[in-house]
Automatic annotation (TrEMBL):
Assigned GO CC terms: lysosomal membrane
Entry protein name: Lysosomal cobalamin transport escort protein LMBD1
Superkingdom of origin organism: Eukaryota
GO-annotated molecular function: cobalamin binding
InterPro entries according to UniProt: LMBD1_LysCbl_Transport, LMBR1-like_membr_prot
Family: Belongs to the LIMR family. LMBRD1 subfamily.
Signal peptide (UniProt feature, chain positions): none
Keyword Lipid biosynthesis: no
Coiled coil (residue ranges): 259-286
Pfam hit, one: LMBR1
GO biological process: protein localization to lysosome
Length: 538
């Protein structure tokens, strides 16, 4: 018992270290992208806190799986200390952890982040008194609070009965699991609200993460164009524009006014010249910076990382495809949300994670790596595409030059994507997320001349055929599948994710090298500061 308590304490200590690492990462990440000129304390704290809460909720997943797995021995028997009461206490502890984190996420998404965002929007448009700005921000935030209240009410009273079109024993087991999970209105309301946000996160992952999974590795492999070569081209462009300007201005030397067409052309050329000169300053700054020289030195390492990332992306895609194909072939269908207990078509990650789980914390490290991989690929997608509302680009995300409002948008998107990551990991390794490394005992009869000689028991990985009291399902799995229609949406979303990744892979392969200042200097920039990029590279 003492040894068990010691190992459990070690697990929670590692979780505490993970929390500290998450906070440090979020602080560095937000500080890297926020504008040096327009940084605000409240928006910085909000962004760091929101992103940290999302990452902490994903960090609870391997803890949940470790705890249900640790209650059983490798031979399939329960450990001496793991009686029904202890098991229930452990499960409840994890459940309360999810309650707390998901409640904080709802608070961030529907109250805190919208309020801070609208506050700075009002501050940018009106330099009036603070009280007026707070009132206006609260007025707009009230709409988000109303949406949250509607989601909670729908979740509390929406019927969970599944259309009884399938006579499936497996689905009966799923319903029994949900009954064990709890039927309180509060739990249902929270689960429905979080599932709604997870669907939005799924759409963000399809848009940004799927594309970023192809763009990030290929950009690392191809590299960027030379700063010296770009400066030479830019100088030629400046000379060409200046000559064009002289030709137009020469038309009015004798006092004749310019035509309206020439005036428009003159204005466009002057704007173009300002942009080219700004590019010249940035290219000169980058060419002389120590960071550029360092990047040249580690160019071979970047290529290695790019090859590694594309292999990982293909591994994820294959695993996701096999998992979805398994659901298409062996689940009870759309009416059950394509839910299956166990796996029929295994995939590489589903085989790897249960093996690593037996040596804590190897699976924890892999899960953390997967989450961070999704973060970096999502960020690559957002940086390449920007933040859009349908066909209108709202913000650009740049290192050291992201406005407070854009930073809040960025962390909101990343929060929703990380929220969806738990389901992505389930899709990649369903057996692992449901049962971890749990096994159960199955009776095996050895016979000679049709007469039983002895009766033995063999251990088997937990699956849909396991007795109800022999395998413990993680709280994560039940949270993700409490509403069958969300599970159906996730299923179709996975197919869309695969399709967007393949399209993004083709597009990224066809593109040439990126500019060394890709996205840093554009004609329509309104939030630029020439000093910010120089400060970043020097």
């Amino acid at each position: 018992m003492a040894a068990a308590a010691s190992e459990l304490l070690t697990g929670w200590c590692l979780f505490g270290l993970a929390l500290l690492a998450i906070l440090i990462f979020c602080w560095v990440y937000v500080r890297k992208y926020q504008s040096r000129r327009e940084s605000e304390v409240i928006s910085t704290i909000t962004a760091i806190f929101a992103l940290a809460v999302a990452l902490i909720s994903s960090a609870l997943l391997p803890v949940d799986i470790f705890l249900v797995s640790y209650m059983k021995n490798q031979n399939g028997t329960f450990k001496d200390w793991a009686d029904a009461n202890v098991s229930r206490q452990i499960e409840d502890t994890v459940l309360y952890g999810y309650y707390t984190l998901y409640s904080i996420i709802l608070f961030c998404v529907f109250l805190w982040i919208p309020f801070v965002y609208f506050y700075y929007e009002e501050k940018a448009e009106d330099d009036g008194n603070t009280c007026s700005q707070v009132k206006t921000a609260l007025k707009y935030t009230l709409g988000f609070i109303t949406i949250c209240a509607v989601l909670l009410l729908i979740g509390a009273f929406v019927p969970l009965d599944i259309p009884n079109k399938k006579n499936s024993t497996e689905w009966e087991k799923v319903k029994l699991l949900f009954e064990e999970f709890g039927s309180s209105h509060g739990l249902s309301a929270l689960s429905f609200s979080i599932s709604s946000l997870t669907v939005i996160g799924m759409l963000a992952a399809i848009t940004y993460t799927a594309y970023g999974m192809s763009a990030l590795p290929l950009n690392l492999i191809k590299g960027t164009t030379s700063a010296a070569y770009e400066r030479l081209e830019n100088t030629e462009d400046i000379e060409e524009v200046e000559q064009h300007l002289l030709r137009i201005k020469s038309k009015c030397r004798d006092g004749r006014p310019l035509s309206s067409r020439d005036r428009r052309t003159l204005q466009q050329l002057e704007e173009r010249l300002r942009t080219l000169r700004r590019r010249e300053r940035h290219l000169e700054s980058i060419e002389k910076s120590w960071w550029t020289k360092f990047c040249k030195a580690i160019r071979p390492l970047k290529i290695v990382w790019g090859v590694f990332f594309i292999i990982v992306a293909l591994l994820f895609t294959v695993s996701l495809f096999l998992s979805n194909l398994d659901k298409a072939l062996h689940s009870a269908g759309f009416d059950s949300g394509f839910i299956i207990l166990g796996t029929n078509l295994t995939n590489p990650l589903n085989m790897m994670l249960p093996v690593l789980q037996t040596v804590f914390p190897l699976d924890y490290i892999l899960i953390t790596t997967i989450v961070m991989y999704f973060i970096f690929t999502s960020m690559a997608g957002i940086r390449n595409m920007g933040i859009w509302f349908f066909w209108i680009r709202l913000y650009k995300i740049r290192r050291g030059k992201t406005r407070p409002q854009a930073l809040l948008f960025l962390c909101m998107i990343l929060l929703l994507i990380v929220l969806h990551t738990s389901y992505m990991i389930y899709s990649l390794a369903p057996q692992y997320v449901m049962y971890g490394s749990q096994k159960y005992l199955v009776q095996s009869n050895k016979t000679i001349d049709v007469q039983p000689r002895n009766v033995t028991f063999v251990s088997k990985d937990c699956d849909a055929d396991a007795p109800e009291d022999q395998c413990i399902v993680t709280r994560t799995y039940l949270f993700l599948h409490k509403f069958w229609f969300f599970s159906a949406a996730y299923y179709f979303g996975n197919w869309a994710f695969i399709a967007v990744f393949l399209v993004g892979l083709i597009v990224s392969c066809c593109k040439g090298k990126k500019s060394v200042i890709e996205g840093e200097v554009d004609d329509d920039d309104s939030d630029m500061s020439d000093d910010e990029l120089s400060a970043y590279y020097h």
